[in-house]
Amino acid sequence: MHPVLRPLVPGLREGAIASYGALSATQSAARRRVRIQGNFWDRTLGRGSALVLAAVGICGAVLVACSEASPDAAVTEAPARPSSEPRASEAGLYLVSLRPETEPAPLRRLHSWIARIETPDGDPVRVTRLAVSGGMPAHEHGFETRPRVTRGIAQGEYLIEGVRFHMTGHWVFRLEWVGPAGADVALVDVQVRP
């Protein structure tokens, strides 16, 4: 049911909106009230001005969308500030650090990160399974891509490929793995700046 009709006509069924002949006199009056309320721009500015405003708004939205999504747009370097210092995992079984493969990590381009997992004593850990996910908690969305661990590159170090920061701000990597001391999880914060 159209949200504008809902408060005005409480008994209107969803299927009755399309069939004009099925509307009662009360529902027809409510429909006229909605139509009058919906023509605010026509009554205030006149039909021509409303069309010009709508066209300007659409053009502006298209320009903004094209400028942000243009493949020729300048790629800015995003000085990502990862947690390069090892931090304890949630269960405290391991220490985890994360760094970009090339510094600084680029903004709006695919790049890779290196995760290092070690024991609390600093010895590298060989994991049997490692998964990565994450996103921007403040915006409640994940990565636009699907980052994944592709291979081990050294003892206790694993390559994460397919990372893309499409905007600046606070990002979080979630690493889950199974190691000799058991399964564990770590959240690693990354601040991407303009």
Short description:
The chain has helices at 5-8, 25-38, 40-45, 47-69; strands at 80-81, 87-88, 95-100, 111-118, 129-136, 141-142, 148-154, 157-163, 169-179, 182-192.
Description:
- The protein has 194 residues and is an alpha+beta fold.
- It contains four helices and ten strands.
- It has helices at residues 5-8, 25-38, 40-45, 47-69, and strands at residues 80-81, 87-88, 95-100, 111-118, 129-136, 141-142, 148-154, 157-163, 169-179, 182-192.
- It has a five-stranded antiparallel beta sheet, with no helix packed on it. Strands 2-3-4-8-7 form a five-stranded antiparallel beta sheet, with no helix packed on it.
- 19% of the residues are buried.
- Mean pLDDT is 74; it is low at 1-23, 31-45 and 64-79.
Chain-wise SSE layout:
Layout: H1 5-8, H2 25-38, H3 40-45, H4 47-69, E1 80-81, E2 87-88, E3 95-100, E4 111-118, E5 129-136, E6 141-142, E7 148-154, E8 157-163, E9 169-179, E10 182-192
Antiparallel strand pairs: 1-10, 2-3, 3-4, 4-8, 5-6, 5-9, 7-8, 9-10
N-to-C span: 43 Å
Number of strands: 10
Return Rg in Å: 27 Å
Kindly report the oligomeric state of this protein.
Answer: single chain
Low-pLDDT residue spans? 1-23, 31-45, 64-79
Tell me the series of helices and strands, N- to C-terminal: HHHHEEEEEEEEEE
Total of DSSP H or I helical runs spanning 4+ residues: 4
Mean of residue pLDDT values: 74
**Share in β-strands:** 25-35%
Q: Structural class per helix/strand content?
A: alpha+beta
Cross-sheet strand order for the largest sheet: 1-10-9-5-6
| Major sheet characteristics | 5 strands, antiparallel
